[in-house]
Design goal:
The complex is a heterotrimer of chains A (149), B (181) and C (112). Chain A contains five helices and no strands. With 149 residues, chain A is mostly helical. In chain A, helix 2 (40-58) packs across helix 3. Chain B has eight helices and no strands. The radius of gyration of chain B is 22 Å and the shape is globular. Chain B has two domains: 1-83; 119-181, no CATH class. In chain B, helix 2 packs antiparallel against helix 3 (51-72). By secondary structure, chain C is mainly alpha-helical. Helices cover 65% and strands 0% of the residues of chain C. Chain C is built from three helices and no strands. The chains are: A mainly alpha (149), B mainly alpha (181), C mainly alpha (112). Chains in contact: A-B, A-C, B-C. Chains A and B meet through helix 2, helix 4 and helix 5 of A and helix 3, helix 7 and helix 8 of B.
Chain lengths: 149, 181, 112
């Protein structure tokens, strides 16, 4: 037991497998947001919960090394810019801000509904990154201390 | 059983849960009670034919519980001096009950349950699948017809999370500065 | 109508907590309760008797659907609610670090 942070080896081994399944499920929910219940908001929370699972099982230091927090911060700030860029593309190609300028495709197919799946992906990334960052910052605070500032 | 009975049952659970959450002394019990209320809301959404909302409410409730438990567990907030002012509580309760009874005519004037106005949405339910190509009408509304709303919503979420991060990170930096001195 | 009244009663429970509690944790929980009541009220408006959920499948094509518009509005509202909760929690933690209490009557420099 070199690594004292985190939980026991059983939890770590299970987490090593389950986190990928949870991430896969999250992406499934995001990509099928225009066909089934779900979408960017629900899938984003599932992805954030997968990262949280890793953080609970392995401890904070490992997670910071594994995930590259600065990259997550950049993604969070970039996703809202991407949303705006998609809106501007709607002006140039569709004639209105946030217009649905791509082809509609066939109903009930995965690649259909124009820009709606793209917006779902952007919102999913945004929600996942921002919620995980909140938990990451909250993990740092010492909840027993008080009255020192 | 008709849907009204199930919904009244669920809302009864929610009322009891919220009163327990506000009146109980233990912090962890209060947070668990608010979790029960949130999950009851999720079940109510399922009864009201809103599976999208049920999924989102369920997941966000779990996340809110994690945040609340992480932030507030083990803190002694409820000393004896913290018992709220009894007179003020009674006065506020009476006033709120009076407001509830005074508002009863308003609810009678609203469209009855099960028969919505359905003016704008008639167009959406008829035309949305042809105009956007999405089978999920809720997704087609929030990301196509009313994508501007969603842009504002993402901005609000960005601002709120940024505020939380800033507030918490400033405190951490001051702590580190004190330790190094 | 009884459903509307119960929903409004839930909202008033939240208002009661907001007005009478002195504990910051209870105030945050009160705002959460008010949010639940508002969301549920909006979705109650959109329900139609004998209608299916607003997602087209092969099984329910052609049948009447419940109103999708309040559901779309509430979907964004739930997300914003979590953001607001996170912000309030962060502010409460900061206040605890400064005053070592959650009792709002004891935070003296906040008094006007």
């Amino acid at each position: 037991m070199k690594d004292q942070q985190g939980m026991s080896i059983i939890v770590k081994t299970v987490t090593r497998v389950s986190v990928w399944l949870i991430l896969l499920y999250g992406w499934y929910i995001i990509l099928h947001g225009h066909l089934t219940p779900g979408g960017g908001f629900a899938g984003g929370v599932i992805i954030a919960l997968a990262f949280l699972n890793v953080m609970l099982a392995y401890g904070k230091d490992f997670t910071v090394k594994w995930l590259n927090i600065q990259f997550l911060k950049d993604m969070e700030a970039a996703s809202i810019t991407l949303f705006l860029v998609m809106g501007l593309l709607g002006i140039s190609f569709g004639g209105a801000f946030l217009a649905n300028f791509l082809g509609k495709g066939k109903l009930f197919h995965l690649f259909s509904a124009g820009t709606i799946p793209l917006f779902n992906v952007i919102i999913g990334i945004k929600v996942a990154m921002s919620l995980f960052l909140v938990v990451w910052v909250l993990a740092d605070i010492d909840s027993t201390k008080g009255g020192e500032l | 059983m008709p849907i009204e009975t199930w919904l009244i049952f669920t809302m009864g659970i929610m009322l009891v849960g919220s009163i327990v959450a506000l009146e109980i002394r233990d912090v962890l019990s209060a947070i668990i009670a608010i979790g029960i209320v949130g999950l009851a809301v999720s079940i109510a959404f399922l009864f009201l034919q809103a599976p999208d909302l049920a999924i989102v409410q369920f997941l966000f409730e779990i996340f809110a519980l994690i945040i609340l438990v992480r932030a507030f567990i083990g803190k002694k907030a409820h000393e004896d001096s913290l018992a709220s002012n009894k007179t003020a509580a009674v006065v506020v309760g009476v006033v709120l009950l009076a407001i509830l009874f005074l508002c009863l005519p308003i609810f009678r004037a609203l469209p009855p349950f099960g028969e919505p106005l359905f003016i704008t949405s008639a167009h959406y339910t008829k035309m949305a699948t042809q105009e956007t190509g999405a089978a999920n009408l809720v997704a087609s509304i929030i990301l196509d017809y009313r994508a501007y709303d969603t842009l504002g919503e993402v901005t609000v979420l960005f601002a709120a999370i940024l505020g939380a991060l800033t507030v918490l990170r400033t405190s951490r930096r001051t702590q580190k500065g004190k330790e190094s001195k | 109508m009884i459903l509307y009244v119960l929903c409004f009663a839930l909202f008033l429970v939240g208002v009661y907590g907001l007005l009478t509690k002195r504990d910051l944790i209870k105030i945050i929980l009160s705002t959460a309760i008010m949010g639940y009541a508002a969301n549920l009220f909006l979705v109650l408006f959109g329900y139609r008797h004998d209608a299916t959920f607003p997602i087209l499948t092969e099984a329910n094509a052609g049948q009447p659907m419940v109103d999708p518009l309040p559901q779309a509005l509430v979907l964004t509202s739930i997300v914003i609610e979590l953001g607001i909760t996170a912000l309030l929690v962060a502010l409460a933690i900061r206040l605890y670090q400064k005053y070592a209490t959650f009792d709002i009557t004891k935070m003296r420099s906040l008094k006007g």
